[in-house]
Amino acid sequence: MSAHKQVAILISGGGSNMMTLVDSMTGDHPARPCLVLSNNADAGGLKKAAAAGVATAVVDHRPFKGDRQAFEAELVKPILDAGADIVCLAGFMRVLTVDFVTQFQGRMLNIHPSLLPKYTGLHTHARALAAGDSTHGCSVHEVTAVLDDGPLLGQARVPVLPDDTPETLAERVLTQEHILYPDVLRRYAAGDRTPVLLG
């Protein structure tokens, strides 16, 4: 039996954060990727994961026509089949129900492109600029039933520059996401829940 924690990563798109997690889980890392799961069969991250030797699966949300519980009943199956100890959301663009979150309470992580509790939800970079913030960034937190809530496990800060657009700010934040998320996952898989602050 492997001593490594098994990690399932949920994506909806290109999977850049997913790949930084996969690439980090080597050597003395306390975790290994066991599954990359998407609600979108066309997600670019699926091919990247497969090329990296990670098992992939797809559960398309569209046939369920808004029945989130039925969708999640199917979504949970490959996660359980893979024996996942930890679930990482990495650009998974579906809001999960209380029932799903409760099933993985205390072992599900998410990365969000703002300094939570600021700017939950979407359009975080534009909202930070509109508010005149001098600092922006990203957060990794444990997932709870409340959207973008839950105990903070890490944050990375970036300065907001005078000529920033939502796109340029997003690019700099994403660079920090790729540093922060693997760092937090390594600590979390080893049992360390102490929040880390970068930048």
Automatic annotation (TrEMBL):
Catalyzes the transfer of a formyl group from 10-formyltetrahydrofolate to 5-phospho-ribosyl-glycinamide (GAR), producing 5-phospho-ribosyl-N-formylglycinamide (FGAR) and tetrahydrofolate. The gene is purN. Keywords: Purine biosynthesis, Transferase. (6R)-10-formyltetrahydrofolate binds at R68, N110. Residues 6-185 form the Formyl transferase N-terminal domain. Gene3D superfamilies: Formyl transferase, N-terminal domain. This is Phosphoribosylglycinamide formyltransferase. GO terms for molecular function: phosphoribosylglycinamide formyltransferase activity. The record marks D148 as: Raises pKa of active site His. One of its GO terms (biological process) is 'de novo' IMP biosynthetic process. The active site is at H112 (proton donor). N(1)-(5-phospho-beta-D-ribosyl)glycinamide binds at G15, S16, N17. It catalyses: N(1)-(5-phospho-beta-D-ribosyl)glycinamide + (6R)-10-formyltetrahydrofolate = N(2)-formyl-N(1)-(5-phospho-beta-D-ribosyl)glycinamide + (6S)-5,6,7,8-tetrahydrofolate + H(+). Belongs to the GART family. GO terms for cellular component: cytosol. Its EC number is 2.1.2.2. It is an enzyme of class 2 (transferase). PANTHER family: PHOSPHORIBOSYLGLYCINAMIDE FORMYLTRANSFERASE. Pathway: Purine metabolism; IMP biosynthesis via de novo pathway; N(2)-formyl-N(1)-(5-phospho-D-ribosyl)glycinamide from N(1)-(5-phospho-D-ribosyl)glycinamide (10-formyl THF route): step 1/1.
